[in-house]
């Protein structure tokens, strides 16, 4: 059955209103004057302006204002009040700047808006997919307190009021507290339900050696797979990409030195691929290579880390600010700086590797205060976020910015009643709203343990379990991965331990907030699986099969 969806087609830009009331500041300001100018900025607590417990201001609007100040040299004097109070002060010339104001033609007659928007709001209204009569659709929506929604002057009640959406409909949302309104245009879009479909088998010319990773390149929106092959008794690294119709090699096959596991792949903002592996030829330390000019080359020097434990895991990410690689390994031997089973962070500074960066404040654990497993890494904003499992002591989340590691959550992400967590796998992704999705395992529900998904908001610090336990009994080598699509829906792919050991994928239903029915990707025994989405919201899953020397590639596509 076709799904009917109410989709707001007009994107309302939230602009930063810069000098604001023309009659107050009609004159040009010289560059020298700008450097010494004090600008009075309205501050109200809300989505884009928040004040932490430490008294520090933060939020998207605040960061935008700081970026403006970096170019203008302005100094800010913050004036606090409600949104309505500050709007009045803006109009009266009592403040000079107010963030988070939506552009309207009426406002543009008395305010100056920046040409570069602070961001944009996208609004979606959904209707019952069983109701395909668009001449009498009933929309469900949520509003903040004090807001009214009207269509053709008729007050709308969510889930009750029917309207004819045969043609685009104007909807007016009014904030009764500030007496301001926004208008949107609603257009019906019929959308076929999506399903996962296999689109290709990747069969390398040499025998697969068992290591495998997959990630989507943000530049070309295509999935890349890093894998190892048996090269005369020595495992070597290879990379291939899906070009939309077939797989093609990225550089030469078996381009690395001998691999002892721990492979990962990441991309810089320009789409340059980087790979990480534990280098058997260099004392089982970490090596990173990048692909430029048609060739793979070593970044810095091979084997830059201390001796690493491949079975405990590795992680690779690209620093959003420097565009250089950041690596996390788990130590496999004691040294002056790093104890065994301790996590080590290394980062490339443009000319050499800075190593032995210690994660301080680690939770105390049985036998050692340092034991860590399966580090994973991703990026958000200007930072790299790293999660890892602590043996029998939950999971930890860290933030790496400007060469500094800071703990975000230490020893958390365990359901109440859990006494242990699984240590052999972990997965992380972050949506566009700063929600960290961490797929973990604990024994709160079953003795063997169940995977579950935590959501942690980086701004508020709110932590919640979403979707309930994933119905798959944990096994020490049970692989599972999480990825969030462009609509902030988390998907989890996992290996069926108790059955055929094939791979399944589930997603969190935005309506019920529960897991969807598990979809079987294949019917044969699989090994590892990875899931990722591109900016067009195309989903990809890569599955390494146990037999047949094949990696299967799936995509999330229309059912018809």
Count of distinct structural domains: 3
Q: Biggest sheet: strands, sense, closure?
A: 8 strands, antiparallel
CATH class of the largest domain: Mainly Beta
Number of helices: 4
Strand order of the largest sheet: 13-12-15-16-1-10-11-14
Helix content: under 10%
- Averaging pLDDT over every residue, what do you get? 84
Strand portion: over 45%
| Alpha carbon gyration radius | 26 Å
CATH architecture assignment name of the largest domain = 6 Propeller
Instruction: Give the terminus-to-terminus CA distance.
Output: 11 Å
**DSSP strand count:** 44
Task: List the quaternary state of the chains.
Answer: single chain
What does this structure look like?
The protein has 560 residues and is mainly beta. The protein folds into three domains: 3-11 and 121-191, Immunoglobulin-like, CATH 2.60.40; 15-114, Periplasmic binding protein-like II (D-Maltodextrin-Binding Protein, domain 2), CATH 3.40.190; 194-206 and 313-558, Neuraminidase (6 Propeller), CATH 2.120.10.10. The chain contains four helices and 44 strands. The strands form ten sheets. Strands 13-12-15-16-1-10-11-14 form an eight-stranded antiparallel beta sheet, with no helix packed on it. Strands 2, 3, 6, 7, 8 and 9 form a six-stranded mixed beta sheet that branches. The protein has a four-stranded antiparallel beta sheet with strand order 17-44-43-42, with no helix packed on it.
């Amino acid at each position: 059955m076709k799904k009917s969806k109410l989709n707001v087609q007009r994107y309302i830009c939230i602009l930063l209103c810069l000098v604001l009331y023309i009659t107050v500041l009609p004159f040009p300001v010289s560059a020298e004057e700008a450097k010494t100018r004090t600008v009075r900025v309205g501050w109200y607590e809300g989505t884009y302006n928040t004040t932490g417990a430490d008294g520090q201001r933060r939020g998207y609007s605040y960061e935008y204002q700081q970026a403006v100040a970096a170019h203008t040299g302005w100094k800010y004097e913050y004036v606090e009040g409600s949104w309505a109070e500050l709007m009045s002060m803006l109009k009266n010339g009592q403040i000079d700047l107010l963030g988070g104001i939506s552009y309207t033609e009426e406002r543009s007659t008395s305010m100056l808006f920046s040409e570069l928007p602070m961001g944009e709001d996208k609004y979606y209204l959904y209707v019952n997919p069983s109701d395909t009569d668009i001449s009498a659709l009933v929309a469900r929506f949520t509003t903040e307190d004090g807001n009214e929604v009207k269509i053709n002057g008729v007050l709308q009640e969510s889930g009750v009021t029917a309207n004819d959406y045969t043609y685009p409909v104007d909807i007016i949302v009014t904030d009764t507290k500030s007496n301001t309104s926004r208008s949107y245009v609603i257009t019906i879009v019929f959308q076929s339900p999506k399903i996962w479909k296999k689109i290709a088998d990747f069969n390398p010319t040499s025998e697969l050696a068992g290591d495998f990773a997959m990630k989507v390149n943000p530049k070309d929106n295509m999935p890349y797979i890093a894998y190892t092959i048996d090269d005369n008794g020595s495992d070597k690294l290879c990379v291939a990409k899906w070009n939309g119709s077939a797989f093609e090699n990225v550089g030469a096959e078996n381009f690395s030195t001998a691999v002892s596991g721990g492979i990962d792949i990441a991309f810089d903002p320009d789409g340059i691929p980087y790979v990480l592996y534990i280098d058997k030829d260099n004392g089982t330390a970490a090596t990173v290579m990048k692909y430029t000019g048609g060739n793979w080359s070593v970044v810095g020097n091979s084997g830059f880390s201390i001796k690493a434990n491949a079975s405990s895991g590795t992680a690779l990410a690209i620093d959003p600010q420097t565009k250089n690689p950041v690596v996390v390994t788990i130590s496999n031997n004691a040294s002056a700086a790093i104890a065994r089973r301790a996590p080590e962070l290394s980062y490339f500074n443009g000319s050499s590797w800075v190593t032995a960066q210690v994660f301080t404040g680690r939770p105390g654990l049985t036998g050692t205060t340092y034991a860590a497993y399966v580090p994973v890494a991703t990026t958000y904003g200007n930072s790299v976020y790293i999660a890892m499992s602590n043996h029998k002591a939950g999971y930890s989340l860290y933030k790496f910015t400007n060469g500094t590691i800071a703990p975000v959550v230490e020893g958390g992400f365990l359901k109440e009643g859990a006494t242990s967590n699984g240590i052999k796998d972990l997965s992380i992704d972050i949506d566009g709203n700063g929600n960290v999705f961490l797929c973990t395992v604990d024994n709160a529900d079953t003795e063997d343990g169940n995977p579950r998904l935590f959501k942690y908001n980086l701004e508020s610090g709110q932590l919640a379990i979403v979707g309930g336990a994933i119905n798959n009994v944990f096994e020490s080598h049970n692989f599972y991965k999480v990825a969030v699509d462009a609509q902030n829906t988390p998907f989890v792919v996992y290996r069926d331990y108790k059955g055929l050991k094939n791979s399944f994928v589930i997603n969190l239903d935005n309506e019920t907030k529960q897991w969807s029915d598990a979809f079987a990707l294949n019917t044969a025994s699989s090994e590892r699986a990875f899931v990722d989405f591109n900016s067009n919201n195309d989903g990809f899953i890569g599955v390494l099969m146990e037999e047949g020397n094949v990696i299967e590639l799936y995509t999330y596509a229309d059912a018809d």
